[in-house]
């Protein structure tokens, strides 16, 4: 090692390998093998939605005398919620770095184990400080899940289906939200469960659901893309060959030939400094895009959901016991957006769909603000307006996760997801409540309309950024969108940004040459 050389910038190379593994994965037809991946990895978003919604619904019960905890409703929705957000941001960054360094499978097992342990301990809470601590570590595990899972899914799903699968999986958060709203009605019924037992059972249910996911997840393979870059090409070859044999046996016939090969300089590890320089120096335009999409959706969602209950009870005299039904309706609207629009992200294209869902949801929220300010809405029609807004916004928000998981080199993918998720979550979980709390709880119609307009403005601006900067990644291999750092030839500058139409690396994967900094 040269004098003064940073050890983090000196990855141990283990040789050069030419492989068709990425192309072989992308040409696979949809099969039971892919369903195993989707169920094993994607269902955690349902768990996250269930977790977040349940905690919000049990806040009132926890503050009641006899609940077993000396805690107020404000502490549950304030301090505990903030600690959950802080844990999610910290977990995303910490586990994101580990995921890129040690592999997807190890980390998506570890992060789920952290979540399960923290949730189980939350159910056993005996003091306020214990509850707060467990909420932090629950978020810590969930944040790690976002980095490990999104990177693994995108690297295992064929390029033809990647967009719709990613969107639907991220949108499944709202199925958990629906389940959480309805489950809370049952477990908080004091005719069925004691006041100090029902809320504990909500966390116990999360543990049981998580254990089922863990059993399925054990059968999900490591990312072959990660394996061959990190000097484990034989394992990657064996894994892909096994998948091909299973799919041929299931579908019958022969698989089409792979589109090309890629030459990789295998490395045991990638330095964090190189990752940071690649994402924020050589891919600046894509970094701006990622930040815009995450911050825009975070503020739109907080403009609506942060004061959701207060708006209904303050302006429309909806009872606190009935707001859960309204939330369940909104949650369904959120889920159907990615479900019904997801395919268009693979056919119509990323740029058109990302920009249109962001801009359209922003404009519709402006219209909702105008109708609300003019006194033209009831609780039901306002909820209907929110459903339409969030139908498009949910598809857009899910595409933010898709975007940052596919437009950066493979070695940086989990860390990039973690960073943008942390920024978006912090903006939504910290800045959002600070801005929207006084506006939505003031009881002044104009203040709440202003909250809607703030969220709509940032969402619309993010859509305009997408018009200019979104990458047409539909049906393209991940290596085509952003060539791996390990694909760079000796003496060639690391981290150059591939052009929209060009091929990365030395051109062996698909037959082109990488262009200079562009998209």
A few lines on this structure:
The chain has 519 residues and is mostly helical. The chain has helices spanning 21-26, 32-42, 44-62, 73-102, 104-123, 128-156, 162-171, 173-187, 198-217, 224-229, 233-251, 272-282, 284-305, 308-316, 323-347, 350-373, 379-406, 413-441, 445-469, 478-481; strands spanning 13-19, 262-267.
Describe it.
With 519 residues, this protein is mostly helical. The protein is built from 20 helices and two strands. Strands 1-2 form a two-stranded antiparallel ribbon. The model is unreliable at 1-12 and 489-519 (pLDDT under 50).
- SS class: mainly alpha
Topology order in helix (H) and strand (E) letters: EHHHHHHHHHHHEHHHHHHHHH
Low-confidence stretches: 1-12, 489-519
Q: Largest sheet, if any?
A: 2 strands, antiparallel
Strand order of the largest sheet: 1-2
The counted number of beta strands is 2
What is the strand content?
under 5%
Q: Compute the number of helices.
A: 20
* CA radius of gyration: 23 Å
Mean pLDDT: 82
Distance between the termini: 35 Å
Anisotropy-based shape: globular
Helical residue percent band? 55-70%
């Amino acid at each position: 090692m040269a004098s003064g050389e940073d050890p983090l910038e000196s990855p141990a190379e283990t040789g050069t390998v030419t492989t068709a593994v990425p192309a072989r994965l992308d040409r696979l037809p949809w099969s039971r093998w892919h369903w195993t991946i989707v169920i094993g990895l994607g269902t955690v978003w349902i768990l996250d939605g269930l977790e977040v919604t349940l905690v919000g619904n049990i806040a009132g019960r926890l503050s009641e005398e006899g609940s077993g905890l000396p805690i107020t409703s404000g502490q549950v929705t304030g301090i505990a919620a903030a600690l959950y957000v802080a844990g999610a941001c910290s977990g995303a960054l910490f586990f994101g770095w580990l995921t890129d360094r040690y592999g997807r499978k190890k980390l998506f097992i570890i992060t789920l184990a952290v979540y399960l342990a923290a949730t189980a301990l939350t159910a056993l809470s005996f003091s306020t400080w214990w509850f707060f601590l467990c909420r932090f570590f629950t978020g810590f595990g969930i944040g790690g899940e976002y980095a490990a899972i999104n990177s693994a899914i995108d690297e295992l799903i064929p390029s033809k289906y990647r967009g719709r699968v990613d969107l639907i999986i991220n949108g499944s958060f709202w199925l958990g939200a629906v389940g959480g709203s309805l489950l809370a009605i049952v477990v908080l019924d004091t005719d069925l469960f004691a006041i100090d037992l029902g809320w504990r059972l909500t966390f116990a249910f999360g543990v049981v659901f998580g254990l089922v996911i863990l059993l399925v997840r054990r059968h999900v393979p490591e990312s072959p893309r990660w394996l061959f870059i990190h000097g484990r090409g034989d394992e990657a070859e064996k894994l892909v060959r096994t998948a091909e044999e299973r799919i041929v046996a299931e579908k019958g016939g022969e698989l089409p030939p792979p589109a090309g090969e890629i030459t990789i300089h295998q490395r045991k590890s990638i330095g964090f400094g190189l990752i940071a320089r690649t994402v924020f120096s050589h891919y600046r335009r894509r970094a701006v895009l990622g930040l815009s999409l995450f911050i825009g959706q975070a503020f739109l969602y907080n403009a609506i959901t942060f004061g959701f209950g207060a708006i209904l009870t303050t302006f429309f005299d909806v009872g606190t016991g009935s707001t859960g039904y309204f939330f369940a309706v909104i949650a369904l609207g959120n889920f159907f957006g990615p479900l019904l629009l997801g395919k268009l992200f693979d056919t119509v294209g990323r740029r058109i769909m990302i920009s249109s869902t962001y801009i359209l949801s922003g404009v519709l929220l402006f219209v909702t603000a105008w109708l609300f300010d003019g006194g033209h809405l009831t609780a039901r029609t306002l909820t209907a307006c929110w459903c339409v807004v969030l139908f498009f916004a949910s598809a857009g928000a899910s595409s933010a996760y898709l975007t940052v998981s596919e437009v950066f080199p493979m070695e940086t993918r989990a860390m990039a997801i973690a960073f943008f998720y942390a920024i978006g979550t912090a903006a939504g979980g910290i800045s959002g409540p600070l801005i929207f709390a006084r506006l939505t709880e003031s009881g002044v119609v104009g203040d709440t309309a202003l909250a809607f307009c703030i969220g709509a403005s940032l969402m619309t601006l993010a859509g305009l950024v997408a018009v200019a900067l979104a990458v047409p990644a539909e049906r393209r291999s991940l290596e085509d969108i952003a060539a791996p750092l390990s694909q760079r030839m000796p003496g060639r500058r690391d981290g150059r940004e591939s052009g929209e139409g060009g091929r990365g690396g030395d051109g062996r994967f698909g037959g082109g040459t990488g262009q200079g900094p562009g998209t």
